[in-house]
Amino acid sequence: MWCLLLALATFAPAVGVSLGASGASVLGLASPTTTEAPVSTPAPRSSQAELSAGNENGTSEQHVRIRVIKKKKIIMKKRKKLTPPRPPVTARASVTTSPARTLDLPEKQEPDCPPLGLESLRVSDNQLDASSSQSFGLGPHRGRLNIQSGLEDGDLFDGAWCAEQQDAKPWLQVDARHPTRFSGIITQGRNSIWRYDWVTSYKVQFSNDSLTWWGSKNRSSGMDAVFPANSDPETPVLNLLPEPQVARFIRLLPQTWLQGGASCLRAEILACPVSDPNGLLPEVPVLGSSDTLDFRHHDYKAMRKLMKQVNEQCPNITRVYSIGRSHQGLKLYVMEMSDQPGEHELGEPEVRYVAGMHGNEALGRELLLLLMQFLCREFLRGDPRVTRLLTETRIHLLPSMNPDGYETAFHRGSELVGWAEGRWNHQGIDLNHNFADLNTPLWEAEDDGLVPDSVPNHHLPLPTYYTLPNATVAPETRAVIKWMERIPFVLSANLHGGELVVSYPFDMTRTPWAARELTPTPDEAVFRWLSTVYAGTNWAMQDPDRRPCHSQDFSLYGNIINGADWHTVPGRSVSQRRAPGGQGSHPAPLGSSVCGTPRHE
Ligand SMILES: [Zn+2]
């Protein structure tokens, strides 16, 4: 069951929006109280990943993203070996729920207890211990599901816990700090672009005092159960215990691992709190929020229902409409919020927020659902700032551009979905790379001295190749382009998952094949200002103690970055301020406060 979404509470997205004629205004969202910032997955070395994801079109994207991009690095060689050449979504090895043939595992391999919180950091570093570690960067604190390595081997933050080579009896230990009912384990191998390491089988032991241990037994034989583990670095493998065990400590004891490699793993533990009728135990902290906003994951139906409710609560300032359908026929719902819903008023800037372009990045979707609830609620309360915002702008919120992908990821669950499943649309197209590349024709025209007299630097037409009937353009992308042609947006933003930073245009380097290069638009100062307003009011970004998601510490640069100066991939998504074939659209910063897909807690 998906319950409270802790990560959302940390979000406090304060959105700085330039409102064109109406001047600047800043909308600060209420900031709930929790402080946990789940760090998870993705790595910034996205170039390979993004390329592999299908950027047939060159492409461009029209918004500034606040991206929290769920970009995990992919090992191309490895992936090729591991997966048949099919669209990425389907090509990815499916989750192995590996019930051992030799084990009497429960037939139903679905987790019944929630994650203890290795991935979300609810389990702190000092709750993790190990028999040995190859280095500090490969210490037990790195044995967390979906954690990513740094760029170099030997980084302080490497991609797994790895025992020393000579450690004949390695173990990784988790102290739950309370009597806990352990029900299952999810493991991955080591995340690294240089090495392949994963554990192929392990045993599990339990203890109440960390001295006396007992093992998980095979029910029929009474022997220690040996759980089959991983066969590649990334695919999460779930094993449910034959019998759940109540204990305080749990140990994973690798028995075999990839030949020539080391005993390296990343893990999540599934565990339920144990009731304490006598009240003798220290109280287990309860997750939650006192805010009345709806903090949980919303699948398609729940999202639709929530949008309908907001519309009913605030009929005078809202309108729900659809801009088209996904490949699988789900409607792409937009919540419009303004004092004259349905009408473009002269001089009133049109602003849009798009989330869920990558279907498995749940956070942006939830943020926009929270934003619409917040705006409705505060409008009803008479909040002057919100009232002014709704009176002087027209806001369009598209919480889920890729609902097909979201449904896939949602039903798999956050622990088992891995980094790729549900990321692309149903055809395997990365919507983030699926827009036309408008940078190249613009820059070519500039080089030829044609701008702005012969070629305007806005309202660029779509390139011919992009409009051909056989062009690889997803229905979701087409819907958004048509939307942009219909409404003269002046400001837009995309929300992603995977990194905590505001990224502003351009995303593509002007020098061909340059890996990174500051590539400013003529509006560099505006973009930097907008981005800074967002970053400066985002609680998580401003937390001096927050851990970098990956190897880059964006707090050194004010938590904002020019997209192309971060990393480029030729032909990759380009945050352009010019809508394809349509209206100029300034990017707006958004933000998020988690590094990866938020857990359901
Ligand atoms: Zn994304």
UniProtKB/TrEMBL annotation:
Residues 32-63, 78-112, 568-601 are annotated as: Disordered. Keywords: Carboxypeptidase, Hydrolase, Metal-binding, Metalloprotease, Protease, Signal, Zinc. CDD domains: FA58C. It comes from the Eukaryota. Residues 296-601 form the Peptidase M14 domain. Residues 111-272 form the F5/8 type C domain. Residues 1-16 form the signal peptide. Residues 32-61 have a biased composition (Polar residues). InterPro entries: CARBOXYPEPT_ZN_1, CARBOXYPEPT_ZN_2, FA58C, Galactose-bd-like_sf, Peptidase_M14, Peptidase_M14_domain. Its cofactor is Zn(2+). This is Probable carboxypeptidase X1 isoform X3. It comes from Balaenoptera acutorostrata (Common minke whale). The gene is CPXM1.
